[in-house]
Design a protein that fits this description.
Radius of gyration: 19 Å
Pathway: Lipid metabolism; fatty acid beta-oxidation
CATH class: Alpha Beta
Distance between the termini: 49 Å
Number of strands: 11
Number of helices: 12
CATH architecture: Alpha-Beta Complex
Helix content: 40-55%
Keywords: Acetylation, Fatty acid metabolism, Isomerase, Lipid metabolism, Mitochondrion, Transit peptide
Bound molecules: ligand LEDWP2DD
InterPro entries: ClpP/crotonase-like_dom_sf, Enoyl-CoA_hyd/isom_CS, Enoyl-CoA_hydra/iso
Shape: globular
Main location: mitochondrion
Family: Belongs to the enoyl-CoA hydratase/isomerase family.
Structural class: alpha/beta
Strand content: 15-25%
Order of helices and strands: HEEEHEEHHEEHEEHHEHEHHHH
Number of domains: 1
CATH topology: 2-enoyl-CoA Hydratase, Chain A, domain 1
Strand order of the largest sheet: 1-2-3-4-6-8-11
């Protein structure tokens, strides 16, 4: 335990401007930032070696380039620090993650668009391929890229009355093969085909029925339930657990690793299509109208 505590401090020393001092005894709080302030809070519990990563990019935790970069750096650090487990959750009320920031794809700067996509690939490769035991504590809505993050994890616990799914077709876009493969690994081929073609957003209860999420607990129990489940993962001999996960996921991970640049090109060429830009513009307009009606 003490070793990890020291390791935690070393993270802080390595990133003097990016970290806050540990606030609780035997608990190291490392705040990682990139260009956006405090959008990610990572607490490493020195006793258990479990990190809790809270996404905090209001209003909806949408994944823009800077936010993805923060997540990617944090995942790399946790892996390097040999953290044993990760609980991924949100600090934004009622939202786990609204998926990719649509503004990154709408009327894009083509250079940035490609860097943006590579940063999403990085996050996926690190999270899906992580040696850590990973649990998504889904305490809010989780469309598209949010669902991707959740399905990258080993286990999903969700609060009632939210929605989750890969709704890309509803925006006139397509979930790429690695989104599909991740989803397939969780709910199987037939349900994934159904989900992707129709862009289905499942209610929490529906998600539980198709095993897109593993467990449903009340909102205030989502993180405690994740911590409890994590204990089960951590009881398994580390190497056996990691190798079993690797055996299940290696092929999928390698597929993207080998095709990264082709995938970037496919994304860029698709995103800049006139028809796609039109669809994204209409979808953004619809979101704005809906948001204004609430105000
Ligand atoms: C030949 C073919 C080859 C194919 C090759 C592959 C090509 C690859 C193609 C591209 C693949 C891309 C994959 C995309 C993945 C994605 O993640 S796309 C994003 C999808 N996300 C959504 O659809 C979510 C939309 N948002 C919502 O449904 C709701 O906002 C919410 C999350 C349920 C929250 O609702 P509520 O609390 O009511 O908040 P709102 O009022 O709706 O929103 C507040 C403000 O936030 C803005 N906003 C919401 N979501 C996003 C977002 N994803 N990006 C950017 N901005 C977002 C919303 O507009 C509001 O803004 P204001 O109007 O300024 O208040």
């Amino acid at each position: 335990m003490a070793t990890l505590w020291t390791r935690g401090i070393q993270v802080c020393r390595a990133l003097p401007r990016l970290c806050t001092a540990p606030s609780v005894q035997r608990r190291t709080s490392v705040r990682l930032m990139s260009t956006e302030k405090d959008n990610l809070l990572v607490d490493v519990d020195s006793k258990t070696g479990v990190a809790t990563m809270q996404m905090n990019r209001p209003p909806v935790n949408s994944l823009n380039l800077e936010f993805l970069t923060s997540i990617s750096i944090a995942l790399e650090k946790l892996e390097n620090e040999k953290c044993r487990g990760l609980i991924l959750t949100s600090d934004v009320p009622k939202i786990f993650c609204a998926g990719l920031d649509i503004l990154e794809m709408y009327q894009p700067d083509v250079e940035r668009l490609q860097v943006f996509w590579r940063s999403l690939q990085d996050v996926w490769l690190r999270l899906y391929g992580s040696k850590m035991a990973t649990i998504a504590a889904i305490n809010g809505h989780s469309p598209a890229g949010g669902c991707l993050l959740a399905t990258c994890c080993d286990y999903r616990i969700m609060a009632p009355n939210y929605t989750i799914g890969l709704n890309e077709t509803q925006l006139g876009i397509v979930a790429p093969f690695w989104f599909r493969d991740t989803m397939c690994g969780v709910i199987g081929h037939r349900e994934t085909e159904h989900a992707l073609t129709l862009g289905i957003m499942y209610s929490t209860e529906e998600a539980l029925n198709i095993k897109l999420v593993d467990k449903v607990v009340p909102q205030d129990k989502v993180i405690p339930a994740a911590q409890e489940k994590m204990k089960q993962y951590l009881k398994i001999p580390e190497v056996a657990r990691q190798l079993s996960k690797d055996l299940m996921r290696r092929e999928t991970v390698e597929k993207l690793r080998l095709r990264r640049e082709d995938d970037v090109a496919a994304f860029k060429n698709f995103a800049v299509r006139e028809s796609v830009q039109k669809s994204l513009g209409m979808y953004l307009e619809m979101l704005k109208k809906k948001s204004q009606q609430k105000k």
